[in-house]
Amino acid sequence: MMGKRVYFFGGKGGVGKTTLSSAFSLILAKTKKVLLISTDPAHSLSDLFGSEVGPEAKEVEENLWAVEIDPKKQIEVYIKGAIEAIEGSVSPEVFEQIKEMFHSVEHTPGVEEAAILDALSRIVLKGPFEAFVVDTAPTGHTLAMLRTAGRVGRWLEELIKRKSSAESFREKAGLGRLSRTLEILRERRERFSRFLEVVIRDSLFFPVLNPEKLSIVETERMVEEVTGMGIEITHLFVNKVMPKDVKGDFVERRRSQEKIYMNLIRERFGSFKIVTVEMRPRDVVGMEDLKELAKELEGKL
Ligand SMILES: Nc1ncnc2c1ncn2[C@@H]1O[C@H](COP(=O)(O)OP(=O)(O)O)[C@@H](O)[C@H]1O
Ligand SMILES: [Mg+2]
Prior knowledge:
10 helices
């Protein structure tokens, strides 16, 4: 379980993905060089680690590096790359149209995921890290992103096929050299399919949830989709469970409700190891808190 290459943490906003993925990264970093990647637009790694984390990988602890991928910036880079890839291979009029088309999709759903995927695949396939922990954006985005990998691959395949035959026709007709477009498209397709391969073969997905109705329903959906994609799930994190040693009428009532949900979780997700993490009196903030949590977590994995 600790020998995988990529670890994804997914779940609803606020359940504890950032907290648990950070603590988990600390455990991994004891034995290998780890990069913690946040793809959530609402980043919070800086607050959590108590040191500035940004778009460049930064060492936050021995063997542990962290980076935040900015989706907005990635979209700009991604679209710029896509436009460059096409320039010179079509007529100026068509190019203008294509350019307009690309810019018009800048704010449509799916583009953000494709852009994040582009950045993620570059990072993961490159050294020098031995393991990657991905603190993902809330549920929908993550899945869309992973699904995009397959779709983009197929789409590029088709485009390359078409372009190849056009190129060979042009070459035969003496109409010019192989453009850089093909090269760029090939590189991207290659990279995406290699990334998808790594993701499916060499990754684990950790669903994070709270003992609450909505969280359970969402997790069911997420588990189904992730498993359907062939990605392995072995553990499930139930975070913010009522501590055992707290007493009082109110707490007892919450606890009895929680019991029902915990039973439901065991019933629905019985094939996974269910790791429970108690709710703490305060937020988990700073390296000291994180290390404490990591220690607690390590004994439960
Ligand atoms: N076990 C816990 N006990 C107390 N507070 C927690 C616990 N787990 C997470 N938190 C707090 O809950 C908030 C949301 O956690 P976070 O990890 O940012 O969620 P997510 O990344 O899923 O949106 C943070 O303020 C965090 O400190
Ligand atoms: Mg988060």
